[in-house]
Amino acid sequence: MAMGLKETVSNAYSPWMDDDAPETDVVISSRARLARSLAAFPFPQRLSPEKAEQVVHAVALAIREPAFSSRFDPELVRLAELAPVERWMLVEKHLISPGFVTAQHIGDQQKGLVLSADEQLSIMVNEEDHLRIQALFPGLQPAAAVRLADEADTILEKTLDFAFSERIGYVTACPTNVGTGLRVSVMLHLPALVLLERVKEILTTVTKLGLTVRGLFGEGTESAGHLFQLSNQVTLGPSEADIVSKLETITRQVIDQERTARNQLRTQMPAVVRDRISRAFGILRHAYVLGSDEVMRLLSDVRLGVGMGFLKGIRPRLLTELMVQTRATYLVKTSGRQLSPPERGVFRAALVRQAFKDIVIDD
Amino acid sequence: MAMGLKETVSNAYSPWMDDDAPETDVVISSRARLARSLAAFPFPQRLSPEKAEQVVHAVALAIREPAFSSRFDPELVRLAELAPVERWMLVEKHLISPGFVTAQHIGDQQKGLVLSADEQLSIMVNEEDHLRIQALFPGLQPAAAVRLADEADTILEKTLDFAFSERIGYVTACPTNVGTGLRVSVMLHLPALVLLERVKEILTTVTKLGLTVRGLFGEGTESAGHLFQLSNQVTLGPSEADIVSKLETITRQVIDQERTARNQLRTQMPAVVRDRISRAFGILRHAYVLGSDEVMRLLSDVRLGVGMGFLKGIRPRLLTELMVQTRATYLVKTSGRQLSPPERGVFRAALVRQAFKDIVIDD
Questions:
Q1: What DSSP designation does A48 have?
Q2: What is the pLDDT at residue A12?
Q3: Residues in chain B closer than 8 A to A272 (CB atoms)
């Protein structure tokens, strides 16, 4: 494995965290994912190690084709080449799925990850499908993400024989992905709607309109960091363009709702909100022990403060990066050793304190 | 009334808050108070307005005697000359008692306060006794406080005829003050003993040894700010020297216990304690709303941090001053108008934020 990918893993920052993108006051990132199967192989669930190896090999050859390699400057790594902690770091960076790490039906040697040099494009090989082509962009850019995934798909299709039926479209391991094989999603930060207790109602409406909603970061606590992911429920029937357009339209409505809620907070309880935001900054800046849930809550409050213009001098991308960096997995990697839960809290706080050290808040 | 005393009232700072004094890591201040009655008058409880006026007049003359005035540069003010808010500010500064403000048996015109230019000596006229001579010093200096009160007492006794019985000593309105009429007290900050839940046991022992213990600042919540006052229970029998020596000996034992507790905190749970202290600083530095109990608790934590060497660049006297300045009474005075409770919280936070603005914490 080249050094590039090792560095990618260690570095919590990824281009999808950029804040120099559309609507980053509410939208963290946009993602497109295409599910593709190779016609000549059984689905990964039923692949023999030999066949699985052949799938990886076929992808390895395909990405070395000049059309693909000159466009994406890709690297291929097998999960077996990565330490367990490194695999989870890729999960925290949203470059691979948790299921890809835990799946038992395929050996780690036959689980492949293709990553473009700029980290915008990633391909999981032998996850639920033979290929999961993913494009990840900062801010509200679902169409751009779909375009990039499509571009990779089109180039790969010249070399690889994807299972396709004239009647239903692309054939995938799970029927919920059949058709376009496209899942487009946006990650939204909705702290004001949460604070005003309106998020549930709005997300219920969003679900009724045909999108899937789920919390991000951390199982169990659905809305850790007040982050929510919206994605299309249906892959079969509407065109890619329709899927993207619907997601974008509904997302823009949610963005408007969140912005309205922020204005309401500003007018109706300025002191309470500013107090909450500024205390969050003060605690992050000064704490010596920080829990994993607490840090998500405080980073969310600070991000709201940045969005509302209360906290100047903080870039949203720093906050996204810290959300990833303060996950247990990254703490273990950064500290270079196993950490007990209390040690994690101390290490997490030291990291955050350091990150906020030179930030001057004008208040 | 001269401008001097008006300024004294407005200024939350008083020399007893100095931190350049013995044992200020634990002891905020030391106080001596002598109760004295004028032989020719009934106790204040039974004074007619005319007689009460004569008492004030007699004291006014006595403090103008060169021996007294050249030594103390005193001013006399009548409570009637002070706005209600100003009277309570003097209470918060510990220069007069709350009972002196609320007592109904004497008109405010006949309640006098004598204050030396340096605020170390104060005399309440027509409180429970005709004279309550009080000396207030920073740190552990009970003997110095007694000496100063004695000095004032000796000079005044040349002009005023204090009720004295050869058998029992000075006669006072309440039998608990009879004899020396001396009450010596120290104000202690015992956060580590509170944190380790050992304060109750230690203060029970102190009570058994013959001292009275009470919480300071705020009725009800006995230990707001983790401040406790120790004073002698008995005024009749032991000499002044014995009273002071006993108080000082026991106080030194409590100081040792508190210091031991702080060392235990440092060794046994350094991260937890440092986190608590540093968060307290962060919140005080950044909050936009602060409650009155919360501010006492946070200032106490920060004072502990200063005492333990965790927070450099903060002077203990600033913390004592803020404890006084953030009391509702001072907020009303400083803001120049009545404040609703929510407004108080905002105003209090603004004041504290301002005070901590330029403090740089090296962490």
A1: -
A2: 85
A3: 289
Residues of chain B in contact with residue A345, where contact means CB-CB under 8 angstroms, are: 271
B192 within 8 A of B304, measured Cβ to Cβ = yes
Cα–Cα distance measured from residue A38 to residue A20, given in angstroms and rounded to the nearest whole number: 37
Surface-to-core class of residue A181, CB atoms within 10 Å of its CB (0-12 exposed, 13-18 middle, 19+ buried): buried
Side-chain half-sphere of A70: how many Cα atoms within 13 Å? 4
* Tokens, residue B28: 């905020």
Gap between the Cα atoms of B22 and B19, Å rounded: 8
B356 touches chain A (CB under 8 A): no
The domain in which residue A190 lies consists of 3-260
- Alpha carbon distance B8, B1 (integer Å): 12
Q: Is B199 exposed, middle or buried (0-12, 13-18, 19+ CB in 10 A)?
A: buried
**Tell me, what DSSP letter sits at residue B43?**
-
Average pLDDT of span B289-303 = 95
- Sequence length of chain A is 363
Kindly report, residue by residue over A165-212, the tens digit of the pLDDT. Answer: 999 899 999 888 889 999 999 999 999 999 999 999 999 999 999 999
Compute CA distances B110 → A115, B119, B133, whole Å: 87, 21, 17
| Tally of structural domains, chain B | 2
Q: Which pLDDT score is estimated for B216?
A: 60
Interface confidence, given as ipTM, is: 0.86
A269 touching B (Cβ < 8 Å): no
| A342 with B289: Cβ contact below 8 A | no
Residues B161 and B80 in one domain: yes
The pTM (predicted TM-score) of the whole model is 0.89
A285–B274 C-beta distance less than 8 A: no
Structure tokens at B44: 């204040």
Nearest residue, CB atoms, A287 vs list B275, B287, B349: B275
User: Do A13 and A101 reside in the same domain of the chain?
Assistant: yes
- Same domain? For B167 and B314 the reply is no
